[in-house]
Amino acid sequence: MAKTLDPAVAEVTTGRSGGLLVENVSAGYGRHIVLREVSLTVDGEIVSLLGHNGAGKSTLLRAVSGALKMTGGDVRYRSRSVRDLDTARVAQSGVALVPQGRGVFPTLSIEENLRLGAGVARHTGSERQLVTMDFVLDLFPALAGRLKERAGTLSGGQQQMVAIGTALMTSPTLLLLDEPSTGLAPVLVQTMLDQIRTVHRELGIDVLIVEQNIHEALRVSDRAYVLRLGAIVREGPAATLLDDADIWDLF
User: Fold this and answer.
1) What region holds the ABC transporter domain (predicted)?
2) In the chain, which stretches have pLDDT less than 70?
3) pTM for this one?
């Protein structure tokens, strides 16, 4: 029998309508304001959030995931506010964050990391399509023969695969990715981002991606926003921004 959801979470998980809506969000750390009335949407698509170091990209992902309390504005997911939910309840609502630095449990095996994600999925009710371990291993075949190995012994790229795989095992409807190509060899960056596109196409998972490789991020995205000094300064279709020579002056 499925576990009964917290009423606040149950309300959020009802319906597909609305996607992610970030409305005039301000946030920071103590007296240091990082985000200034930022607004964006993600609905049935892959969206890139671009900007220089310190622009506030990671801060925005933390605010959306419940890891950082905002000082103004609102975050709505599936037409319901998640502003006052903690990280666990935001995760139960269908939002999965892969933080910068990968965030694997290094002393646990690959399989144990993945099953932790599956444990989150078991508490979300029956509405969402469950992501199987077979799907994750097909997506990242380099992990298939190493399930019993500790995650901390893997290369940086393999740890990133485990981190994304664990997030997918929560069966999310929205995936937040913070610099997924950090530490990867250039030859692996395109492959990793192509796999994100596969996840979106085959599972219908929306993606908001913060990425330092601007060209590759725009290549796999439908739309993009440029964040500068805590404010959105440019937005539009990814293909249009990719062809806009002036965009490079923003970084």
Assistant:
1) 20-250
2) 1-18, 102, 121-129
3) 0.89
